[in-house]
Structure formats: structure tokens, C-alpha cells
Amino acid sequence: MTRSGVIGVAALLVCGLLSARADTGSEADWRREFEQASRHHAEGEYAKAEKAADRALHQALAGQGRTQPHVASSLNLLALIRQAQGQPEEAIALLREALGVNERALGVHPNTLAVAMNLGESLEAAGHLQEAMGLYERGLRMADTLHARTPRDESVHGWRQRALTALVDVHTELGQAAQAQVYNRRLLDEAEPASDAVRVAALTRQAQALQVEGRQEEAMALHRQALALRESNDPNDPALVLHYHALALWHAQSRDDAAAQAWFEKALAVVRTDRQGASRLAQAHILTSLAQLDERRGRYTDARRGYEASLLAYTGLGETPDAWLGRAQVLHQLAGVDLAQRRPADAEQRYLQALQLLERALGPDDPRLLPVLDNLMAYYTNRGQARQAMDHGQRASELRRAQIKGAP
To answer: How far apart, in whole angstroms, are the C-alpha atoms of residue 53 and residue 351?
Structure first.
């Protein structure tokens, strides 16, 4: 998860110290142990962190009710240590206890908000999405209340953004796109300016939602806003590819091939600097798209060169379903170029290779085989090879009947 519980440690340390009414000696002892535990936790020394956090908890409990916020802070830190040690259920139990302590001792308070958010994140990490959503909603209500009291408090505004982002994420995970967009819209409409990272993420989510709804021009305007923010922060950010690619596809669909090519080339320049597997796959996709533009404009030699480069990129990804599907697409496209350049024997072999790869990736009964089967039927019909045409045509008909039968 991107919403790290470490932020909660710092917030609780400061707020807890301000809220407690311990005597000076106990306060100093608790502070020393808590800071030592926090330092060990940050350094990944979890066994030492656990011992120091236990000592801090005992110091807080010794306050006989006067140091309840310190008790909650110590429990919260212990929970984060348990989480780091791979004990999520113990972490959740400790956070539940810490939240109860703070609700009784402090009510609506930054400490209570911090623990609620940490508990929500621990529940989300453990797969308890519905319960996590409830904690995030409570956190947002507290953040709204605190914001109304102290509207200029930047830390409270940060918690509001964190709660909204968490609600967007969990509703998305639950497949509740409409509700996710309600919270995402609020992130964009907040009166106070969000951080660049929060705003970029919200703009990107909103753009993608608009694309799904078919509102392409509005979506592209948001992609451009997100793009400007990303470019100003890091012109080599790999995430730029998402926006470049969306803009390129939109221009390609609008038949503005020159603009589409420019955006595809910008995306290609970024992915070529990153050698990770996902970037290599993106590079192969973009090379295919550029070749398709050349083919559409009748530049068959350039298109062939582009498809061959894309095929090489997919082959370099190894024997995986994504690589098979990519190679099948490129071979299918290359067969079209072969036919345009009067190389029918090459086209036939590419169609057959594409079909074999699709069957390997998807199985023999997937409707995504239909374009290749249809083209093979047309190819053999034009060549006067009736038996082969009938074989592929019959198989395509059976797939279509199965598709119709299985439709809701």
C-alpha cells in the first residue's frame, strides 16, 4: 500500500505528548522509550523496537489513567511493529484497542484520526475491505470536523486527503466505480490545493473514468492537466507513458495520425529508458501502434519494419500469455501487409502462426480467435481452396453460436 502507517507514528508522538497530563519523570521516561522504539522501527530493527515499545507502554500504563493518549500511542506503535513482523491480525487487535482508548480519552482528535486510519489500512491489507471502508469513513468524518475547527491546519487537510484517497481505492477494489468517483471528485474539488501527487492521481482516475463513459474530450483535458503536473516534477517519470498513450490513441481514433505519432513517440522515448518487464511490454505495444499508423497511411515498408521490431520486442518477453497475445496480434497485422504487397504465401503462414499463439494463450474456444479465423476463411476462399476455407468458416460459426448462447 502507498498509505504508510509510519506517518501515524509521527502524528501520534506529537499529539500524544501535547494531550497527556503525566508528571515530568514519567513523561520523560515514556518519551525516551517511545522515541527509541520509533527509531528502531524506522531502521527495521523490529526486535529492539518491540522491546522499547513494550517499555513505553508500561510507562504509559503506570500513569494510572493520566496518560491514556500515551497508552494509545504505544499500542499504535506496537501494532505497526507487529505489521512489519508479518503478524497482521495481532496488529489489528492492538489498533482496535488503541482506537478505543483514544475515543474514550480524546474523542474527535488528530490522535484518534491517526489510529482510525492506521486500523483501516491494516484491515485493507488483510483483505477486510468492508470494515476498512467503515474506518476510512470515520476518519473522513473526524477530519471534516477537525477542519471546521481549525481550517488552516495543514496536517488535518493532509488527513482529509489521505482518507478520501483511501476511500477511492477501497471502493475501486470492491468494484464500486460510481462511489469511488464521488470521493475522487471531492479530492479534485477541495478548496485547499492538494499536493501534486494527490492531484495527479485524482486527475488520472477521473480521466480514466470519463474514458469508460465515452466522454473522450473531457478525459483528454484531464490527462493533459495530469501530464503537465508530472512533466513539471519529473520529465522522465515512467507514469507519463499512461497519459502519452491515452492521448495518442485518442488522436489515432480521430484520424489525426500526425498528432498520434508524435504522442506515441514521446511514450516510446520514456519506456526505452526503463528496462523493467512492464516497460518492455509497453514498448512492444507502442511499436505495434506506430506500425498500424504507417499501415493505415499506406507506408507498407515502414509498417513492416515497425511490426518486425514489435515482434522482436514481444519475443524478448519470453513464453508468457502476454507475449503470445502480442506476437499473435503483430503476426495478424503483418499478414495484412503481406497481402497488400502481394505476398500471399507469407500471409498464410503468419495467419496460421497467429492462430496457434492465440490458442496457446486463450484456448481453442475463445471468441478472440474469430478475426484470424475469418481472415483465414477469406484467404482460402480467394485462393480457391474450398476445403480449408470451409474448415475455418465452420469453426468460426461454431464459436459465434457458442458466444450467442452464452450471452446474458
So the answer is: 65
Grid coordinates in use for 320?
A: 508468457
**Domains observed in the chain:** 1-192 (1.25.40.10), 275-408 (1.25.40.10)
| Burial of residue 18 (number of CB atoms within 10 Å: 0-12, 13-18, 19+) | exposed
User: Which pLDDT score, from 0 to 100, does residue 277 have?
Assistant: 58
* Closest by Cα among 283, 264, 258 to 273: 283
Q: With CA atoms as reference, report the closest residue to 185 among 170, 162, 207.
A: 207
Tell which residue, 280, 198, 204, has the closest CA to residue 247.
204
According to the model, what pLDDT value does residue 63 have?
72
The pLDDT, as a whole number, for residue 260 is 95
- Half-sphere CA count of 38, side-chain side, radius 13 A: 20
pLDDT tens digits, one per residue of 340-363: 999 999 999 999 999 999 999 999
For position 275, what pLDDT does the model report? 61
Half-sphere CA count of 225, side-chain side, radius 13 A? 19
- Are 171 and 135 in contact by the 8 Å Cβ rule? The answer is no
Distance of CA 123 to the CA centre of its chain: 19
Q: Interhelix angle for 370-382 vs 321-340, to 10°?
A: 30
**Regions of the chain with pLDDT less than 70:** 1-25, 64-67, 191-194, 275-278, 407-408
pTM above 0.70, yes or no: no
Q: Where are the alpha helices (DSSP H) in 20-109?
A: 24-42, 46-61, 68-84, 88-105
Tally Cβ neighbours within 10 Å of residue 17.
Answer: 16
Q: For residues 115 and 110, what is the distance between their CA atoms, to the nearest angstrom?
A: 9
